[in-house]
Amino acid sequence: MSIINTVSATRADPASLDLMFPQDLISSEVSAQLPSDLQIRPLASTDYKRGHLDVLSGLSIVNDLGEVAWVNQFHAMRATPCAYFSIVIVDKASDKIVGVGTVFIERKFLRGLGSVGHVEDIAVDKNYQGKKLGLRIIQALTHISESNGCYKTILNCNDANIPFYEKCGYVKKENEMAKYAPARVNDTPKL
Amino acid sequence: MSIINTVSATRADPASLDLMFPQDLISSEVSAQLPSDLQIRPLASTDYKRGHLDVLSGLSIVNDLGEVAWVNQFHAMRATPCAYFSIVIVDKASDKIVGVGTVFIERKFLRGLGSVGHVEDIAVDKNYQGKKLGLRIIQALTHISESNGCYKTILNCNDANIPFYEKCGYVKKENEMAKYAPARVNDTPKL
Questions:
Q1: Is B119 helix (H, G, I), strand (E, B) or coil?
Q2: Mind listing the pLDDT tens digit for each residue in B91-139?
Q3: What is the pTM of this model?
Q4: Which of A26, A134, B52, B98 could tie B125 with a disulfide, CB 3.0–4.6 Å?
């Protein structure tokens, strides 16, 4: 029994993981509001194995290129100074990721050479919905953005999700316009 | 007369400038469609003096912190690998900037570790409007985004500008939501 507890504690302790950014950028207030069987922390370099892409696949096309490519992307993002902040919510018992989100920070020439936080790619495992995990992810990412001095934090969402983001303190501002790149000859088929 | 021509040619030649990224990422097709008295090129480290912020001030609050701070921001953005691509349109005769825009590239875990181009901070000097400079800026930025392999390029705009961006090949997708950071005690007053 004590062995099981030790293993579980090692798995859940962010101090033992290779994180994308320091744990202390995660709001302690948000952490305290999570159910006690869950933990919120920065993405770790070993999170491919904990199902990071499985959770993202609930949101959009993932097209998994394998662990080595995923780890390379993790390192490229971490090597970009003060830009990418990906977080996860982990179920402590199973050591599986059940919620994900990212905020990346854009430098500008406007607003006194200001910065803007862009919230992207929020997803929660469908078996863990109804626990306010989406709200906690948005709160944690907004805290990271504001702690980094961003004068605003923005995100894009569909009409149905506007009320949810309003509860998170966001207001509708403008319209998102998109252009998809033409398919290239050497592209792998779109999934 | 020959001296004046030489000076003018030096001013206009991107090869003599310290650019944010290589000139060859600017679409030659877009360059060819500009009026002959104008030039499109990457932002240069000396563009503070050419009125970069003056043009941006037509779009939003600039809060000019001076040339040294601007140049530091330029270098910080250029030092970020494959992230920031700011462009300008210059009036060759006056060597003044008359149009600006930026695309920055976000790495993702989704879509086969794909990238998305975010178009930001498009502005054209009001004395140069009606020359399709906004269209040329968007076309040039979209070309940069797609040349860098981004699977999509996105931007935010108000309702009135939707038809313009549709002419640029963009379609309305979702809604932009924003949260402005609370004022901090040590902040300079908002302009």
A1: strand
A2: 999 999 999 999 999 999 999 999 999 999 999 999 999 999 999 999 9
A3: 0.90
A4: B98
Q: For chain A, say whether B104 makes contact (Cβ under 8 Å).
A: yes
Q: Which B-chain residues 66-85 have CB contacts (< 8 A) with chain A?
A: 69-70, 73, 76-77, 79-81, 83-84
Candidate from A121, A177, A182 with C-beta closest to B165: A177
> Is B164 in CB contact (< 8 Å) with chain A?
no
C-alpha distances in angstroms, A111 versus A82, A175, B37, B64, B165? 18, 21, 31, 8, 24
Q: And the tokens for B140?
A: 């040039």
Please tell me if residue B109 touches chain A, with a CB cutoff of 8 Å: yes
Q: How many CB atoms within 10 Å of residue B60?
A: 13
Closest CA to B145 of B77, B96, B91, B83: B83
Model pLDDT for residues A123-139, shown as the tens digit of each residue: 999 999 999 999 999 99
- Could you give the ipTM of this predicted complex? 0.89
Q: Which stretch of DSSP H or E encloses residue A133?
A: helix A133-147
Selected residues 10-39 of chain B with any CB under 8 Å from a CB in chain A: none
